[in-house]
Amino acid sequence: MPLLLVRLLAALPLSWLQAIGRLLGTAVYLFPGRYRRRLRTNAAQAGYTDPAFGRRAAAESGAMILEIPKVWWRTPQCLALTGGDQESVVREALSEGRGVLYLTPHLGCFEITARHLTQYGPLTVMFRPSRSPVLDPIVESARDMHNLHAVPANRNGVREFVRALKRGEAVGMLPDQVPREGDGVWLPFFGRHALTMTLAARLALQTGVAVILTAGERLPGGRGWRIHYLRLPEPLPATPEALAAAINQAMETLIRRFPEQYLWSYNRYKIPDDAPPLPDEPASAPQKPA
Known about the structure:
This protein is α/β, with parallel strands linked by helices. It contains 11 helices and 9 strands.
């Protein structure tokens, strides 16, 4: 039944789905509670303190959720609405023949970004298995497509990543998830320490690949998505910790391009039970948005 419902949603026009999602996102935000507090606190940490910004960010989160069925089951139709003016960044990196590590934060439509990148060749992406048995058949049926291969976020998945990169192919992952099992270091993110994964940095340093941050900006009126790219300058920092810090800084730059579409409600500053001791907070205040 859930799979049928999602497929029915995919048949609706994109503009309808995004509009309904924005209404639902705004409605949820209007109720006081943990969701609204976290969204406003995280956005304020980055300098976005206007209450209207919080409402718009919540609306965009709703649009992100409702557009996913369309992206999953009407992929060709959605890809026809996807593009940008920075494609040379990708082509240049791929022409070097040493593989590419794409990092896509919780910004805009990260589902369309991966599918857009498959036009350049095989792409292996990492995912965390769903915790809900109801969602499993939905995710399984939509996960793989031509040139897109999904692997679990475990040791086997990491091995698949290394193999793909050594073949000169591309891999993709979310760099702003709270790491599990002690795989992380405390690094500044918008002026506050966040437990930051080192996996992406270690992969890049081990394989010598190009590192590109990318995100799909949601355009108004259901017109599709604009893909943004930000390649890390080389030579890359020499240690995983230094490279992870550079990735956080690059994420901040990318997010500030269209900040209302970042998932500010995500518990980015979570302190897991197995986390290392939290250091003193950075002395500098968070940078205000331009």
